[in-house]
Every structure is written in C-alpha cells, then in structure tokens.
Design brief:
Shape: elongated
Strand content: 25-35%
Number of helices: 0
Number of strands: 3
Mean pLDDT: 95
Largest sheet: 3 strands, antiparallel
Distance between the termini: 13 Å
Helix content: under 10%
Order of helices and strands: EEE
Low-confidence stretches: none
Length: 71
C-alpha cells in the first residue's frame, strides 16, 4: 500500500559493471523519498561523466532498514 504521509527510506549502492569513484559516487546511508499516496519514489546517485565511449554499465541500489517501513 502507498504511504499516507511522506516516507523517507534508506539505501546503499554497490558496484555492478560500473566502478564506484570512477563512474559514480558510491552511496552509503543515502536517503530517498516516496510522497504520500504514491507507490514510486526517488533516490539519487551522482553519475560521473568521463567522456569515455563505453558500453552501458550497472550498479545496484539496495534498500536498507528504517523507520516507518518494512523491507
């Protein structure tokens, strides 16, 4: 169910094929939000533009425990 008020959630990132520190800024203890009555939210990860032509790369964002929600 959607939250009845603004929900702040915790998340961390981990490298996939992208390299933390080179391709993106690793997030440890980051926060994102889900608006009241919404079923999607927003979390931001800073991606580094290195101007190198390369294939698409991946990273993993994992929800972490927090108040007001269950994982």
């Amino acid at each position: 169910p959607a939250p009845t008020s603004l929900l702040t959630f915790n998340f961390d990132t981990a490298a996939g094929t992208a390299t933390a520190g080179t391709d993106y800024t690793q997030v440890v203890g980051g926060t994102g939000t889900i608006a009241a009555n919404a079923t999607t939210g927003t979390a931001s990860v800073l991606v580094t533009c290195d101007n190198t032509i390369e294939a698409n790369e991946t990273l993993t964002a994992t929800l972490a425990a927090g108040a007001g929600y269950t994982i």
